[in-house]
Amino acid sequence: QVQLVESGGGLVQPGGSLRLSCAASGSIFSIYSMGWHRQAPGKQRELVATITSGGKRNYADSVKGRFTISRDELKSTVYLQMNSLKTDDTAVYYCNYRNSLVDSWGQGTQVTVSS
Fold first, then answer.
1. CA proximity to 19, closest of 100, 77, 102
2. Which residues have CB under 8 Å from 52's CB, separation 6+?
């Protein structure tokens, strides 16, 4: 199993920035994908950004150019730098780790963009 611990959510004004962190522990394989999904009230959970163990990144169209996903392999940690935040970015953000055997989710961290 893989355990995920998220941090970095909070309240920010439109146009502001936040950085989310997700630390993974447990049976981490050499080939995997990690990323962030989000769920706003009354909406389905949606992909925000992912990064593979090979470094390939994927972003939702709605966050391209504003969000950047990165990783620190030594710390088994994935980051999501969120810039130019909009009110539509308000959601609970969930970290995800996936490989051929495991699909793990974090508890979620609230991001609220409001003036």
1. 77
2. 31, 32, 33
Nearest by Cα to 85 from 5, 8, 14: 14
For residue 66, count other CB atoms closer than 10 A to its CB: 15
- Residue 67, classed as helix, strand or coil, is strand
Is residue 66 within 8 A of residue 82, CB to CB? The reply is yes
30: how many CB neighbours lie within 10 A of its CB? Answer: 6
Rg, C-alpha atoms of the chain? 13
DSSP state, 63?
A: G
The one-letter code for the residue type at 25 is: S
pLDDT tens figures, 40-66? 999 999 999 999 999 999 999 999 999
